Amino acid sequence: MDHSSHIRLTLAEQTEENLTGAPIYDQNDEKVGTISHLHDVGVAPKVVIDVGGFLGIGAKPVLINLDDLDLMRDTAGRVHGLTTWSKDQLRALPEHYD
């Protein structure tokens, strides 16, 4: 997927409403997870990503810094994110419990 024409989200757009359910892709444009929700919104916002599973079943929730994601909208307006983390690296993180 060519992200060069995608518009980066502003800080004001990085809300729970805009980000929940957004797919996250790795450097090879392979889907590595989906944003479940935001956490610690404010000074050091974080995001919970459901990694793996199928249709949310069997997914492992992990917590990463929001600034570890490059968040954008595609030409159709759909929000998604890019990360330098691989799916295996995300899976190796501790499971996040709310």
Automatic annotation (TrEMBL):
SUPFAM superfamilies: PRC-barrel domain. It comes from Pseudotabrizicola algicola. Residues 18-70 form the PRC-barrel domain. Pfam families: PRC. InterPro entries: PRC-brl_dom, PRC_barrel-like_sf. This is PRC-barrel domain containing protein. It comes from the Bacteria.
